[in-house]
Design a protein that fits this description.
The structure holds two protein chains of two kinds. Chain A is mainly α. Chain A is 72% helix and 0% strand. Chain A has a single domain, classed as MetI-like (MetI-like fold, Orthogonal Bundle). In chain A, α4 packs across α12 and α8 crosses α10. Chain B is an alpha/beta fold. In chain B, β5, α5 and β6 form a beta-alpha-beta unit. Chain B contains nine helices and nine strands. Chain B is 41% helix and 20% strand. Classes of the chains: A mainly alpha, B alpha/beta. At the A-B interface, α2, α6 and α12 of A face α1, α3, β6 and α6 of B.
């Protein structure tokens, strides 16, 4: 129970970020700021409240027993976690490159790398088809060599989710890396640690708060991913139909069931995030 | 009291924003009756909710309508009929609803949201969209059952998907689609992008693809007839223009446009 041993810090500060202890003496806010803050909260919470109010809770059990919903939920969890893994394995090294090296065109490349954050996901899905589809830039030679095609498969679901979610991890981790004190790494190097050891034993632990925040954002985005997935991976129940896709199509047929499904997805994501936070964040 | 000016500033900003919010409404509400220079006095914005399969035809019809009524600006909201019916139900500001299914129009009608009884203005049939030159040599619905083919159907939740099911059942064809597209244009797109070998779409969609796909006919005895009803809506902000638009869609000019886009007259 590490939580009991970290007494004085206010609970909000530990989760937000690794700000220096100077931050946050309690000072009353000016009324306009407070008012705007409350308005902001209203904007964020009202749609959710409306959704909860319109949801037929009595149907939870029946819907969860539906095999199509079960498989959509499973596929969503598996593919979003696979996307998170892929985004972490590729995104952290990329963040290091951006944070540590200077090269011509870096700013442009960096902007392009986070473009999926603002690109309409459906357009991203078309881009994925043009790159990895069976007539695509990479997809065509791949199909010719191996006979393998990516669209309409689970691999496509993971790629689509990775494409839209990795920028969130990238931005957060790079910001964390830029704030690091290089002297720790220099010290490790002078003490004889190799570059990999320094990365693993010094850099990674130091950047851990940003990394966990980035991973949480990345995973949440991957779990909710809709547009790129339905465009690139298609929609087939049991194969490529994730929860957001199931929710969208259920809206056409039975809106109340769709509200319920979206809240189930929400509950699962909150549960996972809370579990992860307890596991990783409170340790520091 | 140093805080007061800042607070007043925010209040002023808030008032300004409210003013902006209301300013656009009188424009829409007044202009039909107000200084409209067109003969019938029609003016302002007209919000038309049209089924996805009508997208291109209604773009041309909107242009023709605007040419006849220069003070009217038609804003088309194009989506699946189910989605549109739900948006209307949830209070979206719409003047006209053109549906690709009688059922979805009935949903809107039963909720008391139409101003006049819906009337059918167009008929559509299904067709098989294949790649140019028909490289997989698909001859009809029966040809789709080949296990090597990548076939995309519209999802059964949308009207086109329900029609596709009907047609396949009528032809006695059982197939496993690679994907169930969320609307008929999305199914068409998979063939246009070369990712699917065939998709079941409307005949009008093959025309809309503008030479980027080829259409294979479905035997008439297996094919289905999709009827498109249109109605002015009860909550219309611009009811005169809504009536005029619906009449226009039934008229010869719009019917000719619809025929150009692969629809037939009822």
């Amino acid at each position: 129970m590490s939580r009991a041993t970290t007494p004085t810090t206010p609970p909000t500060a530990t989760t937000a970020s690794a700000t220096p202890p100077a931050g946050g003496p309690r000072q009353s806010l000016s009324p306009p700021l407070l008012l705007l803050g409350v308005a902001g909260l209203g904007l964020l919470l009202l749609p959710l409240t409306a959704l909860v109010l319109r949801t037929p809770w009595g149907r939870v059990a029946g819907l969860l027993a539906d095999p199509a919903i079960g498989s959509a939920l499973r596929l969503s969890l598996v593919s979003s976690l696979a996307a998170l893994t892929l985004a972490t394995v590729l995104g952290v090294p990329l963040a290091l490159v951006f944070a540590r090296y200077d090269f011509p065109g870096k700013n442009l490349l960096r902007a392009l790398a986070v473009l999926p954050m603002v690109l309409p996901p459906v357009v991203g899905g078309v881009g994925l088809l043009l790159a990895f589809g069976r007539r695509g830039l990479v997809g065509q030679p791949l199909a010719a060599l191996t006979g393998m095609t990516i669209p309409f498969t689970g691999v496509a679901v993971v790629l689509a989710a990775t494409f839209v979610s990795m920028p969130f991890l990238l931005v957060t981790v790079e910001a964390g890396l830029r704030m690091l004190d290089h002297r720790y790494e220099d010290a490790a190097a002078t003490l004889g640690a190799g570059r990999w050891t320094t990365f693993r034993r010094v850099t990674l632990p130091l950047v851990l708060p940003s990394l966990t925040a980035g991973m949480a954002l990345c995973w949440a985005r991957a779990l909710g991913e809709f547009g790129a997935t339905i465009t690139f991976a298609g929609n087939l129940p049991g194969r490529t139909q994730t929860m957001p896709l199931a929710v969208y199509l259920e809206l056409e047929r039975d809106p109340e069931a769709a509200y319920l499904l979206s809240l189930i997805l929400l509950a699962v994501s909150v549960a996972v995030l809370v579990a992860l936070r307890d596991r990783f964040l409170t340790r520091r | 009291m140093t805080r007061a000016p800042a607070f007043r500033g925010v209040l002023g900003l808030a008032l300004l924003l409210t003013a902006c919010g209301t300013a656009s409404e009188p424009e829409a509400a007044h202009s039909p009756s107000g200084a409209g220079s067109s003969r019938e006095g029609l003016a302002g914005e007209l919000s038309v909710f049209a089924a996805a399969s009508l997208a291109d035809a209604f773009e041309d019809i909107a242009d023709a309508f605007e040419a006849a009524h220069p003070d009217v600006r038609v804003r088309a909201n194009v989506a699946g009929s189910h989605t549109l019916a739900r948006q209307i139900h949830e209070g979206a500001s719409a003047d006209v609803f053109a549906s690709s299914s009688v059922e979805q129009m009935a949903v809107v009608e039963q909720a008391g949201n139409v101003a006049d009884a819906p009337e059918v203005f167009a008929v559509n049939r299904l067709a098989i969209a294949v790649e140019l030159g028909n490289p997989r040599d698909i001859g009809g619905l029966a040809g789709l059952a080949h296990p090597d083919l990548i076939v995309v159907l519209p999802a059964p939740e949308v009207p086109a998907g329900a029609y596709a099911r009907q047609a396949l059942d009528a032809a006695g064809v059982a197939l496993t689609p690679a994907s169930l597209a969320y609307d008929v244009r999305a199914a068409l797109a998979t063939v246009m992008l070369g990712e699917a070998d065939a998709a079941l779409v409307y005949a009008s969609d093959v025309v809309a693809a503008d030479g980027r796909v080829e259409g294979v006919d479905i035997a008439p005895e297996d094919n289905v007839t999709a009827t498109y009803p249109i109605a002015p809506l009860a909550g219309a902000a611009n009811p005169e223009a809504a009536q005029a638009f619906v009449a226009f869609v039934h008229g010869p000019q719009a019917q000719a446009i619809l025929a150009d886009h692969g629809f037939t007259s009822p």
